[in-house]
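Example with several molecule types.
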Amino acid sequence: MENLEFLLENKKFQEIKAQLENLNIADIAAMFENIKNNQQIIILFKLLSKDVAADVFSFLNADTQEIIINALKDKEIESIMADLYMDDATDFLKEMPANVVKRILKNTTKENRDIINKLLTYPENSAGSIMTTEFIDIKQELTVEEAFNKIKKKAEDAETIGTIFVTDSRRKIEGVVSIKDLILANKTDVIKDIMNPNVVYSTTLTDQEEVSKLFDKYDFYALPIIDNEQRLVGIVTVDDIMDVVKDEVTEDMEKMAAISPSDNPYLKTSSLTHAKKRIFWLLFLTISASITGAIMSFFEDAFVAIPALVTFIPMLMGTGGNCGSQSATLVIRGLALNEITLKDYFKVAFKEFKVSLLVSSVLSVVNFFLVWIRYDDPLLAFVIAISLVIVVIISEFIGGGLPILAKKCKLDPAIMAAPIISTLVDCIAIVSYFLIASAILQL
Amino acid sequence: MENLEFLLENKKFQEIKAQLENLNIADIAAMFENIKNNQQIIILFKLLSKDVAADVFSFLNADTQEIIINALKDKEIESIMADLYMDDATDFLKEMPANVVKRILKNTTKENRDIINKLLTYPENSAGSIMTTEFIDIKQELTVEEAFNKIKKKAEDAETIGTIFVTDSRRKIEGVVSIKDLILANKTDVIKDIMNPNVVYSTTLTDQEEVSKLFDKYDFYALPIIDNEQRLVGIVTVDDIMDVVKDEVTEDMEKMAAISPSDNPYLKTSSLTHAKKRIFWLLFLTISASITGAIMSFFEDAFVAIPALVTFIPMLMGTGGNCGSQSATLVIRGLALNEITLKDYFKVAFKEFKVSLLVSSVLSVVNFFLVWIRYDDPLLAFVIAISLVIVVIISEFIGGGLPILAKKCKLDPAIMAAPIISTLVDCIAIVSYFLIASAILQL
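Resulting structure tokens for the full complex:
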């Protein structure tokens, strides 16, 4: 709707309503993000038909949700809360200030309030915190026809009807059937005979990253979640997992760049928060780099005798850092995708060793000639070439090894990426370089 | 099945068969990966019941698939090819050597062969290359009951029945209904009245990354794909998109570490290929770092006069590189998630400027005192503190700006990450540092 602003300003509400009818929920939600005027946001929301209002609401960002909630009457809040899926309702409440939460919960049925309060107690990033309680479960004695009747009754409120769970009287999972199984079966077939009794599930406290690995492995659309008494209490659907994957990748990338991870988008994070997220590692790394500097003092005589030696420091440090971060990135990603496991330690080490021999040969030969031509000093060129070989081998070994070591120590391998490795490799590069130079050039 | 090897060696085939029945497809496939003996792989595959064989086959890696295909009779290949989904069949054929492909296609029905040959023509990473042709389409005149009958007939072969597409006689899409809509409708309702006529789709040539953004925005389970004559030719399902997301992230991370991206897992890539993927950028970066070195020659007098100046090079270069890569990572990820758009250029620049002021103040103050204490020289400490402020501001500005500039030039922002930025920042850091030192210390 390109002329939305014009229509809102000129109060052409009927026209807006007509156009809204043809739009997808996500597209309607996207329109809200472009409106600057709070009053217009509220008007637009009130123009939505009752059957899409809650759906659209769940797609909005927290700021817009707050603007709308504050403008709604108690009754309207009640209706939204009745229509929201429980996981969306919980996500939304997590973002609201306390006084708003209080007013919302006051306008929520006791049953839903209890569910929300329960969902809010699950730890961040647990399966419980992302699951929804609106699933369909049936008993195994039902016939397919009876099952369809039950599904028909519950479908409106269920987040998915693609996967139906079979539970006993204590809500323990006994099996799973897909809607496809049911459609292909005969009306008189009994669920017990067509269900798959081999159900993969997670518990409420399983980490969401583990849950996403199950979706990746099994190509699920929905996964059942059980509590510590083995009762089915919720499901996680594949669209929630898409968000999890996105968040986990962002977190990994942030860790790899030595940033403390956060959930907020770049532009919505204050400069102070940005600075706080970055300063810890920067301080740590300046101090460790100062140690490299201190070590260099031992070689002062060498670089006062041959000042040209100093001019190779950026190249050697840079190459070490880059080689290390290449290896680290490949190994960190391989570990995240389960393509590399802890027992592959020697395979990785051996491969990095072979790669570093190949890479360093090329780099040494090229740089040997570059230095020879520029300084007309084959011995200096030789020092640089040998140093490159040593620096590259050590860097790739460290880059490939540290993430695996981190995982062995139950740390996140992603923290062992470029910044940490560069700092470590810098130190080793400088020391090797000056030792080699001192030996060969007899300083 | 922990004792699988034992059972295979002792030919306890009945027992294996019995145990296989209770296992999930993905779990059965995982068992194959652990068998070292090709003969046992073939035996295990032949023990699978006909209705799961093709499904399991599609989950296997290419090496295992090749071992199995080479051991199968023509008739057995024919049966597998008839049962595979077309997208899985195409993926599998892409990985096989030419002579194997020839034999497989000889044992494929003409109809499927035509579909596969068509799918193989779509460019890599296009929607056409990941779609499947096994979808369900119905006509809008049907009643819900008639639609269910049609679905029942086609369900067995369809990759998903969650989303049903409505097409006209020329196969142009007219609408979409979910299986939930159908279940909730009355038997006598006409599809036309309950379908959603507002269909989101992609074309066969759309990049898979764009397709995955649509799934992210709309929370789809399946997206229709049309050809250039607007005809529905396939669907992409959410499980394919999970793989796309994984591959795209790996590609981004590799680019960010200055590695040419590839599709193969770390351990399955030969050392020579690894070396080739890494050498281009390393060579480029050593040469650009040599330029930084050449620039340093201009300041030889300075560091011969005060050799201690050299010992701060690693810290200043490291901090510049780390600040730059922090900013670059945040901006690259923000661009990938559409949280930052091109028109946010000034907002990003301003935010990075504020962050760099905050971060550099802390770093300068800490380092000022460290240097003062160590060298007992407040003027030298002052030089380092001022240099840090300048280096951090410039690094964050470059780190935040280059990815946006890359995107403006239609390049992938991910190439503007740590390695490129470090090399650029190193050069600027060194020059600023020596200029500041020369001015303040009057060298």
